[in-house]
Structures are given as C-alpha cells and as structure tokens.
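#struct-help
A.M.: can someone run this one for me? Single chain, 652 residues.
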Amino acid sequence: MKHILSICAFLLLITNSQAQFSLKYQFEPNPDFAKYCKGHDLKTIDELEVIDERVVEFAYDKDGNLFEYFYIHGVRYVNSEDAIDRNNKIYVSFARAFDLVAYDARVISNSGTIQTLGKDALKEGTREDESKVQYFAVSGAEKGSFIEYYYLVKRSPNYTGTWFGMQSNTPIAKSMVKIISPENLIFISKSLGGYTTLYEDTSLADRNMLVGIQENIPAIPEEPFSNAGGNKMKLMYQLFYNTAKGKKNPYNYGIVSQNIFENMGGKLNKEEQKALEKILKNCNLKEATDDASKIRAVENYIKKEFTFVENPANEFENFTSILKSKTLNETGATRLFYHIYESLDIEQELVVTSNRYNIRFDKEFESYAFLTDFLLYFPKLKTYMAPFAQLYRLGLIPGSYLENYGLFVRKVSVGELNTGAGKVQFIPSYSGKHTQHNMYITASLDESTDSLNIDYKQEYTGYYAQNFQPIFDFIQKDKVKEFEESIVKGLHPDISIKSIDIENKGGENLMLKPLVVKSKLSSHHFIEKAGNKILLKFGDLIGPQSEMYQEKQRVLPIENDYNREYHRIITFNIPEGYQIKNLEQLNLSVQPFKNNAAGFVATYKLEGNKLIVTCDEVYNQIHFPLEEAEQYRSVINAAANFNKIVLVLEKK
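D.P.: on it. Structure tokens below:
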C-alpha cells in the first residue's frame, strides 16, 4: 500500500508498453454485451457484472528483474437509479504499482450510443483513514446502460501466494482469469468455493498460461449466521517451479517456518536485549508462580501500557524504539511477547493463520497467502493468546481464527543453532461453557401496578466478557457511567436505572473472573393494562433476541463466530389477589440435535406467589451444513418466540 503513487505521478509514467503485454486491451469498436447475458433478464434485473476479466502476467525487464503486469477489464450493466449510484465510482487497484500503462472507460447506452469518459475520468480521493484511493468517475449512465473500463499497471511481483475473490454480491455473467509467466516459471493454482479449475493454454509462444472461464456465477448473499467471505469463490496461485534454477516448490512451509522463526524468535542484538530486559522489569512478575500467571502478567502490562498500531514501519518492531515510544505493530508485538516468554523459559509455538471470514486456511495447499495473522500457542497449557489483539487475553483469541488451520512453528535446536520447524494443525473452537451470558432476575409490580421493579444480575464470561471487561482499562473517567449504563440498557433502552454495581472490571480479570453486573431498575415498558387485566411482557426480560424468519431459500451453511451458552433464572412475585392464566406458554423445548449442538429449553414452577422460570439456550457447534439450517433456525426462533411471551394477570 505504501507504494501506491498519486494519480499525477501515474499520468507522468504512462508508457507505450502494449507490445510488452501479451494480450490486447483496446475496447471493441462495436461491442455486443448482450451475448454474454443469456439467462439474465436485462429488463427486470437491477445490476449485472457482465464481464469480470483479470490477467496477471509475470515478465522480466531489460535488467532481468521480474515484475508483474496486472490487467482488469470489466463490464457492468445498470438498470436502476440505485445501481447507477452504486457504480458512479469504480475503484482501481494500484497496490504495489509503479507504472500505469494504460486505462480507459466508457458508457454504452441502451440505444447503443457510446460515450468515452476520457483520461479525466480517473480521479483520486481520500478514504476515512486519509489513505489515497483511485477510481473511475462514471457519468452519463442511464437505466439499461453498460459501463466498460480497463486498466493495466506494472507492479512489483507477488509470486509466493495470493488469491482473488471471484464472487461478489452481484451476479457475474462471465468470469475470466489468466496467469501468464515466462517459460522458466511454472505457476500452480487452486480454486476454492466452486470456482472452475484453471487449465493450461498453449496459445502464447514462449509463455506459460493458466486460464479459467466460468459463466453465470450467482451473487453470494448476506445471510444471518453465515460466512459469506469465507464461502465465496476464490482463485489462488503461486510459483511452483523455476526450471532455470531447478527448484520446485520454493515457498514451502519448511522454508517459511525457518524464516518465521528467524524474524520473530531470532537472536537479539545487544541494544534490543537491553530494551527487552527493561520492559520485562515492569511486568509485575513478583506474584507470578506458574507459566499461566507469568504469561498473564506480561500480557496485561503490555496490552494496557502500550499503543498498538497497524503500521509496518520498522520503528514499531524494534525493541529499542518500542521502549521509547511504547508503540508497536503486529510484528513488534509478536516478537516482544515471544522473546519475553522465551526469557521466562515458557514453552511456546508461533502460529500463523488466516482470518476464516476472508479465506480459510487450506491444509492441502501450501501458500504464503494463508499466513497473515500471528498467535502464540502454549503446549503445556494447551491454549492460545493473540499478541496483537489488545482487548483479548490468554485463553481467548478472536473468533475469526477458530475452527481453522494454522502453521505451528516450534523452536528446534541443532547444536548452538536455533531454527523453526513448522506443522499445519487445527485451531479448535472453545466449548459453549467457555462463553456465557447468565441472567438472574427478580421482578415485582410496583404499588400502582403500572411499572415493574427489577433486580437484575448478569454474569459475562469468554467473548461476552471481552466485549466489556478490558474496555474499563481505557475508557475516560467521565464516560464510565455512560458505558456502565449501556451494558444494563441492553435489556431494554426504556428503563430507569436506580443503581449499578460492577465487579471484576479490567482486562486482567478476563478469562479469570466473570464480569458481574448488578443493577436495580424500574420500567413501564414491561406492563400494559387491558381492562382489569395486567399484561406482563415476560419474554422481554431476557432482552432482545435474534430472529431467522426466512423468506428466501437459504444458500449458505450456518457458521457461528463462537460457541456460547445462556442461562437465565427469572423470578416474578405475583401480586396478592392475582393469578396468571397462560403459564403453559413458559414451557418451551426445542432440541432438534441429538448431540446437543444447539437447543433451547424453558420451564417454570410455582412456589407460593413466586413464579420461577429457568431458561437455557446452548450453541455448541460452529458449523452446521445447509441441510441442518432449518433445525438451527428453529432454535434461534425459539428464543425469539419466548421473547414475545406476554403473561396475563387476572384477579382471582
């Protein structure tokens, strides 16, 4: 990203490089895009990606240095004002680019009129994070128009493993991809999510070419409890063999494991070693008696006292600089934690994995493309920590890394030489008991019977505690009350808070002690009157619930962020002289899975004038195949249906 140049610089660097690029890239004078759209009703469809063509060509410059051409050719059909608005900016990828070779854009109207947008159509803007972004500014499109564009850049090569997403939230009529390389460079590819397998094409002289063509790719939907990013069609490719050097699979995990260890765990120079020792002195290890407590003490100190930034600069990786600025990036954090734990003789392994919501780590295909995020694994404790996740602690890592594979790199000593040995292993999810939100509620009508008084106790563990506990370390003092009230108002925004008492605040308690929130509330929301009857919105006492009331046929399998459990005990003091007519609604059991993968059970009992309802909801499985989606939906909706229960109180 740091190599992205400004538009002005690109325009100055335009070269007549057409002969060097193997394929033709001019627009056709009389395009007929309708031939690609068979199977799509252009009169009723809102938007269609007619052509998605991508070409990566590796080539040598005059000095024998490898570079990469990157070519994009796209055609989009727009048939509504919303679709026109969505496509009035078509963003251009200049990542790693150092030369803009050619580009053009045009609009073809429904009547066939062609409007060339010209060189001025390429604009530069600024994102919210102030980074630069380039795009085609599209004007003149109307309903039924085709927007066509292409651009060709020269950029630094990526041959160690990368991937394209080949599916989006818009259907694609025709997808084409080509990977071209010199004769001595043999590339391999792997298709994921159902994208077509690339085949060898011999039509280019003195060039290798892999080609993939797929028609009528459906849009990937955004569905609840799913992973659209992880399931979308993808294409991976990387260099496998350089015949000029006789090396096959040069970017295998054996080599990269050594590199990872050297970068993260390699021997420190004297300056870095001194800085490390100074940091270690501040880690409050006096009361730490075992590996777990030592790991936590170090983690709590660094994650509370240091600033974490997404900046690749070396100053945020070098311990001497980190000590001065108390600022570090992911590499710096991973190196720092690893070396501190190494100095404390704690057995550990470096883990490099992927975010499964972007791309799942494929254990069968060795690729650097999967090696994006670092964890530490402690074999004796059989648990993980995330060095760069500031709001997480030992035993809790971001859910995007669970139920995924990773490359585990352990230190291997050969004489006085230390190196890394890697093995692909699975990162399992935690059980539902690991993450709980438990409620203990006692409710009574006030004297007017118009409002409900509530004693409300909540216990949060695991990921639910992570949402709040570590925030207390960083929140401004004048914002604490507002933050605490927001936790309680998760029950319902229309409540009056009389008192709040919160136990076990702070990240140092995460995964050791539950966050306990005790509050006294009152609210008119839960009570309605109907003549001489009192309507109690009893189900609302468990708070808002997700729903899965499906109108369209589901496409994606179920996938959860993490497993979790809910345990609720609600006690309602029935006022003197009243009885409840519809108690049977409180008995609700939905348990569609024999292995208790997910279920919802509610029961009640009466003890004098006390109504005691116990409600348990569990999710103990991350993945459910599409054929089990209906059973899963029944559990989600059981909680939503309970949430709608209204009890009717009548005078005896």
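A.M.: thanks! The longest helix spans residues 291-305.
D.P.: also worth noting: Residues 49 and 172 are 5 Å apart (CA to CA).
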